[in-house]
Amino acid sequence: MTVPQVRSQTVKFYCTASSQEVVVGEQVDITYTVTNGDLSKFRFPKIDPALKLVYGPSTYSSYSYVNGYIETTKSYTYTLKAKSVGVVTIPPVTCGVNGKDAKCNALTIKVVEQKTSTPQNAPSTSVAPTPPKTGYSEPLKTENIDDKIRSRNFIVGTTDKKEYYVGEQITLQHKLYFLDEYTPMTVQKYPSVKGCFSYDLEGPNDNYVYTEKFQGVDYNTLLYAKSALFASIPGKYTIDPLIVDGVVEVMVGMDNFKLRKERPIILTSNTIPIVVKPLPTPPKGFSGGIGKFNIQAEIDNNEVKAGEPITLTYTVSGTGNIKLVDLANPPFSKAFESFDPTIQENVSTASGIVAGTKKFQYILLPRVQGKQQLPATDFIYFDLEKKEYATIHLPEIVIDVKGSIQTTSSSTKSSKEKKIYGIKDGEIHAEQKAFFGSIGFIVLSIAPFLMFLGIFFIKRNRAQNETQQLSQKAIRQQLKILQTNIDQGSAEQFYISLSQLIRLFSAEQFNINTLEKTKESLEAEFLQKGVSSADTSEIMHILTTCEHALYAPQSKENTRKELYERTNQWMKKIEGNFKEKQ
């Protein structure tokens, strides 16, 4: 048995287009492909407005196994729409590949009013050909040799069904049927569907060649690619073809003169029409989940002291579009200080079906002593087996809160009594006329108002102190999570926690509600509070890096540590400046 090895090859990074010429109003796909490497710090370049970016990127990855070696291929496809006539140059892009800079080729796309006719000698892309009745031993004649090769070697794409609901898994696979020997093929264009996101699926044995009968002929067969698509909008769709190129070894010539020859060839699979149906009218509280799901609620401690943080976790598990499952924030009572949840996803495709878990983790700070209830929750999803909405009811959770962070003041009452006793000297009735307008009358008149203001400011200061203590505890909680994941553990959890730490610190430092603000409005708030442009730009860059890191691979292993240290320096600097102003 041969153990697969990763072939030591030069990394390739190149760009291709689905068409070199496109009519105004049509779309064209630009695909960036890297072999034997991983892209990082990649951004689509700025181009002429004659082509407008409308979707992307859609990603696809595969690997081939030939002669004991593995070659990996990853592609990133962007869809552009032609807006006006012109010649558009897609400039070369430089980005990180395996920690080094790599540069791809440039492309030129011509946008026209009407497409020119296809030349008669253009290569055929017809699919599902009628297979030959004879086997491999028959030599091919030199005329129409490419058509002959395509009749003996071709790719067929299929889906498991023709009609789907919105959000239902569309299982797409492409099989290579071949009679001739071939070298490893390179994918020029992966299939895509506008408005869909996809996952690569693992087949039972992706590199296993077996015999399968197709249209009455036994072919060598290889499962070339398999993926799961999820459509978000109902309608009629067409799955684009898979296009590959390679070299096929064939016998050419007449019966009395046979020659074995390598021939380059491009194989194009068939397009696949599908119909995506809308869901029935959803009930209020629909989570977006479509498939088969379950949900559990867990609390790390149901007996706590007031002001000590507790963690409430909702875990959704099952099969289906787990990525799009959402959970509305429960209506927590005023007895708890709550923060936006931390969300963790774990998706598996090993069984050929997209499944996994999604966790919504809330940090709660109890404020009031006694038996406090966390609200009951209804989780509603669309059950594909029953073709109807299903509801899972989670009962309320009772938390026993010991003590209280709210204290009562006894000084207010005694102060009030002391002021009242001080007014009882003299005969009031005898000097009633002179009392009006006197200093005593004025003091007596404004005393309740002054007392009210005093109580108000005392309570407001106490509430601010309590809120500050709660915020600091939440900050410490996020710091603990960050330190756990800074060198290892969940990268996604690290970047989510770092973003929350910045927002919690800013809320505590500037007394603003940062959790409900966008990044842009938060930037304006910092500048208004007197944070310098340089410091504001620094923290905005860190927040943007966190957002990008959740959707793109990182080129440096120490990126997490660098971001953590930069954030820590920024907080110390802001805290120091704030104290100086006070």
Can you put this structure into words, describing what you see?
The chain is built from eight helices and 33 strands. The chain is α+β, with helices and mostly antiparallel strands and 582 residues long. It has four domains: 1-116, Immunoglobulins (Immunoglobulin-like); 124-278, Immunoglobulin-like (Sandwich), CATH 2.60.40; 292-370 and 398-402, Sandwich (Immunoglobulin-like), CATH 2.60.40; 440-581, no CATH class. Strands 24, 26, 27, 28, 29, 31 and 32 form a seven-stranded mixed beta sheet that branches. Strands 1, 2, 4, 6 and 7 form a five-stranded mixed beta sheet that branches. Helix 6 (519-528) runs antiparallel to helix 7 and helix 7 runs antiparallel to helix 8. It is elongated and about 120 Å long. The model is unreliable at 1-8, 116-143, 406-433 and 552-557 (pLDDT under 50).
